[in-house]
Specification:
This protein is α/β, with parallel strands linked by helices and 503 residues long. It folds into three domains: 2-104, Arc Repressor Mutant, subunit A; 113-241 and 312-379, Alpha/Beta hydrolase fold, catalytic domain (Rossmann fold), CATH 3.40.50.1820; 388-502, Nucleotide cyclase, GGDEF domain (Alpha-Beta Plaits, 2-Layer Sandwich), CATH 3.30.70.1230. The protein is 35% helix and 22% strand. The radius of gyration is 27 Å and the shape is elongated. Pfam families: Abhydrolase_1, Trans_reg_C. Keywords: DNA-binding, Hydrolase. Residues 1-98 form the OmpR/PhoB-type domain.
């Protein structure tokens, strides 16, 4: 049995008191006194009852009981003056008065945390549940594979989702139990990380469930790699993180800057829960804070939010060809319900469910979300592999240098086309070519046939036209590319109408 109060866990099974996951040293009798008071918190416990329960009827003085009460208070951060958690009822005894969030059997997780390797970095992942289908959960801002189980309501969300299929979860690079590289990864890099986790877990094709910040990356992966995505679920997510004239629901740049200053300055996720989950109680807020601080540092928080502010996957939505469910709560204050409607409206064939409530976080009233997910998955058949997929199309005019593209083809006119699964990867590849004198490059995002040595279509012709306009040795990219690489750290400067070059 484990009891959770404030930022503490009283685990009767392991005989441990833990604060933020760290064991608090206690004498055995002090632990027993605290455990008895918490277990019988609905009433006042007399000194005589404590003596019988803890000392087994052996004679002890009242000062021994008083001493153990004092030690118990010190262990939980209380004292005789404040009596915030352990109250003395004069002439009667003692009572535990703290708010206990959970008093349930401990769900001991025997599922091991394993590691996948992507770009030389180790990414922590865990597989739970079971079933014929795989479900990859793409988390929001931060996660922690172990602490994710420490909050009973969040654990219940994970357990139920795992009852619908083999649940594959991971901590993004830079957070949780994964490696902490320098710099912040863009969406493409994270997309490659998900594929590495799927490969390590032996998942050929899976349902992607992306919530909050995990949504845009899940959507991009579904568009670029439909062969790996059986279906797509988006909850509380968005297509763009900064307001523009044609996307008026997102925060302004000034609002995002104020948000990151407050959050990184205080690293006060408990306060942020007022927006993320207004219905959360104090225990959930404290767990949220513990989990967040264990997952990332303030400097990482600042960098992640700055990257997320630039995210824009609007141009990829129309190329998603897998069954899609979009869920959004009507009163969500982190991402507006209009953003959920936008996603559903721009993803072909997507279903949309508008849910009542104001909580952004998945663990609050999770059955409301998962009822919709269960119904969707019950009726969703694995989509046939679509003939088209979204790709970054690089047209090469001149002798083609050695490139690391996932595929090389030609146009009917003989132009070399290198196909990448993301524009940032393509730009970095071209910029890394040592000898490109006399070669001109044009890059655009386009849907094209997944197989075959000859490719054609409007998007391919845009890439060809950009290569034709480029100077020898130059790469020109389209405005669509500019939008998708905005969060990658690649600087682009205008090079005429609807064209940009790396700065």
């Amino acid at each position: 049995m484990t009891f959770v109060f404030e930022d503490l866990e009283l685990d009767l099974g392991t005989v441990e008191l833990r604060r933020a996951g760290v064991r608090v040293p206690m004498e055995p009798q002090t632990f027993e006194v605290l455990g008895y008071l918490v277990t019988h918190r609905e009433r006042v416990v007399s000194k005589e009852e404590l003596m019988d329960a803890v000392w087994g009827g052996r004679f002890v003085s009242e000062s021994a009981v008083t001493s153990r009460i004092k030690q118990a208070r010190q262990a939980v951060g209380d004292n005789g003056q404040a009596q915030r958690l352990i109250r003395t009822v004069h002439g009667k005894g003692y009572r535990f008065v703290g708010t206990v969030a959970a008093a349930a059997p401990v769900s001991v997780r025997h599922d091991p945390v394993r590691y996948a390797v992507s770009d030389g970095l180790h990414l922590a992942y865990q597989v739970t549940g079971g079933g014929e289908r795989d479900i990859v959960l793409v988390p929001g801002f931060v996660s922690h594979l172990e602490l994710d189980w420490a909050e009973p309501r969040h654990a219940a969300f994970l357990d139920r989702l795992g009852s619908m299929g083999r649940l594959i979860r991971f901590d993004k690079r830079g957070t949780g139990l994964s490696d902490r590289p320098s710099g912040v990864p863009d969406l493409e890099t994270r997309m490659h990380d998900v594929l590495a986790v799927m490969d390590a877990a032996g998942s050929r094709r899976a349902v992607l469930f992306g919530y909050s910040e995990g949504g845009p990356m899940a959507a991009l992966l579904a568009a670029m790699h439909p062969d790996r995505v059986e279906a797509l679920i988006l909850y509380g997510s968005y297509a763009k993180r900064e307001r523009s004239a044609d996307y008026p629901w997102a925060p302004t740049r000034a609002e995002r800057e104020a948000y990151v200053d407050r959050l990184a300055g205080e690293w006060s996720w408990e306060a942020d829960m007022r927006v993320m989950a207004p219905s959360a109680d104090e225990a959930m807020a404290r767990w949220w804070g513990q989990r967040a601080r264990a997952s990332a540092t303030p400097s990482t928080v600042r960098a992640l939010i700055a990257m997320n502010t630039l995210v824009d996957v609007r141009d990829a939505l129309g190329s998603i060809r897998v069954p899609t469910l979009v869920l959004h709560r009507r009163g969500d204050q982190d991402s507006r319900v209009e953003e959920g409607r936008y996603l559903a409206r721009n993803i072909p064939g997507a279903a949309f469910a508008e849910l009542p409530g104001t909580d952004h976080f998945v663990a609050v009233d999770s059955d409301q979300i998962l009822d919709q997910v269960a119904e969707f998955l019950a009726g969703a058949r694995a989509a046939e592999l679509p003939p088209l997929a979204l790709g970054a199309v690089l047209a090469v005019r001149g002798p083609a240098p050695e490139l690391s593209a996932v595929r090389t083809a030609r146009t009917p006119g003989g132009t070399t086309i290198a196909v990448y699964d993301g524009p940032a990867t393509a730009i970095r590849d071209v910029l890394g070519v040592r000898r490109r004198e006399g070669v001109r490059f044009g890059l655009h995002i386009a849907e094209l046939a997944r197989t075959g040595n000859v490719v054609d279509g409007p998007g391919v012709r845009v890439a060809e036209a950009l290569a034709e306009r480029a100077e020898p040795g130059e790469l020109l990219v389209s405005a669509t590319v500019r939008d998708l690489v905005a969060a990658s750290g690649i600087t682009l400067e205008r090079a005429g109408d609807d064209a940009y070059r790396p700065g």
